């Protein structure tokens, strides 16, 4: 009979620390997240067929800051509200942006993945955080380009829906990692 030392799970790093908090506070955070996603959608560089926005940055941050449950809830509420309301880039509704449905469908998956990884401690340090966020970005581009391929063809989808966005998304990922690092250094330990 051997005695094994239990391995301590990685310490979660979800800066907003909402576990066990009142439902009303969580609802306020979700609504603030929806406002953040909307504002990030309206910050854009016009491009065709998909404009470059700060949406992916906002999705990454919502997942990392809120954890997977509230992160996904925030993104799903924002998407639901964007059906009738002009919350997306160029003040469009979800029904007006057929070319971006693949990217938008990836957002809840991104928030879930980043949130799960944050809850496992992966966003507490810069290198694991960068890897986590890059995997989320790859997920977004995979679904986005797959959908766009059905609309304009694979070669054009890669040329117009992936290549022009790589540098921008690397910058957004670096910004998210930098902010998470600042939060870790400035907020008290969990």
UniProtKB/TrEMBL annotation:
Organism the protein comes from: Dongia sedimenti
Membrane topology designation: Multi-pass membrane protein
Name of the featured protein: Biotin transporter
Compartments (UniProt record): Cell membrane
Residue ranges of the TM segments: 23-45, 57-81, 93-118, 130-152, 158-183
Leader sequence residues: none
Keyword Transmembrane helix listed: yes
Keywords: Cell membrane, Membrane, Transmembrane, Transmembrane helix, Transport
